[in-house]
Amino acid sequence: MLNIVIFGAPGSGKGTQSARIVEKFGINHISTGDVLRAEIKNGTDLGKTAKGYIDQGQLIPDVLMIDILASVLDSFKESKGVIFDGFPRTIAQAEALKQMLAERGQQVSIMLDLEVPEDELMTRLIKRGQESGRADDNAETIKKRLVVYHSQTAPLIDWYKAEGQYCHINGLGTMEGIFNEIAGAIEKL
Question: What is the pTM of this model?
């Protein structure tokens, strides 16, 4: 099983590159953002709870995310692997993911860290908000999301380095160039 964690600040290109990885390597994609947006759109209890956190630029509670991921992961039959997009975001989540995968006889194969300077992230996210109408892509919420990223999520870099699964990817450049670097890292596994 090829289990990939794609990592980076909001706006680093995780969704774009995930789609390319799925296409090239034939694995499933779990985007916590997409899953949560679907729950919100459908007006489920989970969606209503999640919306409150998202609108404040906060992370969804771990227990909620683990339950969602386990359910989605178990729904994939005959899967070659999964790319986790937007999860884990904290060390506690990384530990929970490691345990959940171990219970299924699996592990994370690689953590791809898409690094992009903060000024570029702001530019990308504001543009995305203007084009897509996403309510959480406005300057005030973006700044909150980046503070949360730096304080809670960035420590995962050292965690995955200690696990021997970390891979730095330069998130600046052409989409093709970035993808070639990602594909090369995956093909070495």
Answer: 0.85
Catalytic residue chosen out of the listed positions 20, 51, 98, 128: 128
Q: Is 134 a catalytic residue?
A: yes
Question: Is 14 annotated in the active site?
Answer: yes
Whether 89 sits among the annotated catalytic residues: the reply is: yes
Q: What are phi and psi of 108, to 5 degrees?
A: -70, 130
How are beta strands 2-7 and 110-115 bridged, if at all?
parallel
Let me know if 124 is a catalytic residue. Answer: no
Among residues 37, 98, 134, 143, which one is catalytic? 134
Fold of 2-187: Rossmann fold (3.40.50)
- Distance (Å, rounded) from C-alpha 82 to C-alpha 73? 8
pLDDT band at 31 (very low <50, low <70, confident <90, very high): confident
Place of tokens 């960035």: 154
Confidence of residue 53 (pLDDT cuts 50, 70, 90): confident
4 or 135: whose pLDDT is higher? Answer: 4
CA distance 24 to 10: 23
Q: Is 145 a catalytic residue?
A: yes
pLDDT at 68 over 80: no
